[in-house]
Design brief:
Length: about 350
């Protein structure tokens, strides 16, 4: 695939320069072009299918680091990170490998339908969440899911093909690749790569409802915090930041306020920052209704503010002005943010309206 950048645009809210991304997708063995391959920037509305020549064009891609996903039935999913800094990027070529079909004397035993339905309910509750958006969020093809529980009690879900989700709460159709999903004794771990399409609104009232729902999902979210942090506006946006030794301790724990400058350093491109801190970062959001959350000890807490904690699983994490963090599985989240799941997730290129 050849990568060509040009046609500079400007994203109004963050003033991030954007470019048009073009390229070509080929079969790794035959070197022939692949038509109708899905090419998209992970977790965004930015994507396009390839044409008969294997060519595609994705417009308005913000400068910075992005995960590019290429998929087509019968081929191994391809992912790679691309860093867009200007219009002089080097050319890339992606060649997709065909999946190897294993045939032979393997007996496939179907899961008990009643057990499968219980597992599906458990998966849906944990993956979509339990908020109002989850109630009107539909898994269109749940039959592709399979589940297992090992001797330690860890529950896992797998999907060999993309999940199709209709989020009627936020107004998106989502094509989602489930990378990992497991519920263990202490942690829920999940990862996905998705492509969003806006559902056409039937009337102005529906469009306005979706706009309000999207803004509500954004305000106070992890993405809102990271975007405000990267832009230097976290306090203005209603966030207070502290470093704590352990969020589980109610007495005797140290809670020290920190500034943005103490935990941020410049990244490799202007709209990216490196986030570093020790122990846990406690974040309190005060510009919205309180969110009730369940602590690891089982206590229900609710107030006029929402509190969340994050812990790094590596030395640092790269964040950008869109509120994304680049390195997968680099953050452990508890508190209010841990309740916001797929049904509350917005595409990375969602821009909240001004003066909201």
């Amino acid at each position: 695939m050849c990568l060509v950048l040009g046609s500079i645009h400007l994203l109004p809210a963050q003033q991030i320069p954007t470019y048009t991304l073009t390229g070509r997708v080929l079969d790794d063995s035959t070197k022939l072009p692949l038509e109708n391959a899905n090419v998209f920037i992970a977790n965004s509305t930015m994507g396009a299918p390839t044409n008969q020549q294997g060519l595609f064009r994705i417009r308005n891609v913000p400068a910075g680091t992005h995960e590019l996903i290429v998929s087509i039935v019968g081929y191994v999913l391809h992912t790679r990170f691309v860093r867009i800094t200007d219009s002089t990027q080097p050319s890339l070529e992606i060649r997709l490998k065909q999946k190897v079909l294993q045939l032979g004397g393997v007996e496939v035993v179907g899961a008990d339908p009643a057990d499968w339905r219980k597992d599906l309910a458990r998966f849906s509750s944990a993956f979509l969440g339990e908020g109002p958006n989850a109630d009107i969020c539909t898994l269109v093809n749940p039959e592709i899911l399979s589940f297992s529980t090992d001797l330690s009690g860890t529950f896992e879900a797998r999907a060999p093909e993309p999940l199709r989700i209709e989020n009627n709460g936020l107004g998106y159709e989502v094509l989602l690749r489930l990378m990992t999903f497991s519920i263990g004794p202490r942690w829920l771990t999940y990862g996905w790569r998705s492509f969003y399409r806006e559902i056409p609104a039937q009337d102005d009232d529906r469009r306005l409802d979706w706009q309000k729902a999207r803004l509500k999902a954004y305000k106070g979210s992890l993405r809102h915090f990271l975007a405000s942090l990267a832009s230097g506006h976290s306090e203005k946006e209603g966030f207070s930041i502290y470093v704590v030794t352990n969020p589980l301790l109610s007495n005797g724990r140290m809670r020290m306020p920190v500034s943005e400058d103490e935990i941020l350093s410049p990244g490799s491109v202007p709209n990216e920052k490196l986030l570093r801190f020790q122990d846990y970062l406690e974040v309190e959001y005060n510009n919205g209704p309180g969110v009730a959350w369940r602590t690891p000890r089982g206590n229900i807490v609710g107030s006029n503010s929402q509190i969340s904690w994050m812990q790094l699983s590596r030395d640092f994490v790269t964040i950008n002005l869109m509120g994304e963090y680049i390195e997968p599985y680099s953050l452990n989240i508890t508190g209010a943010w841990s309740l916001q799941r797929v049904a509350d997730a917005l595409p990375s290129d969602y821009v909240p309206p001004k003066n909201n």
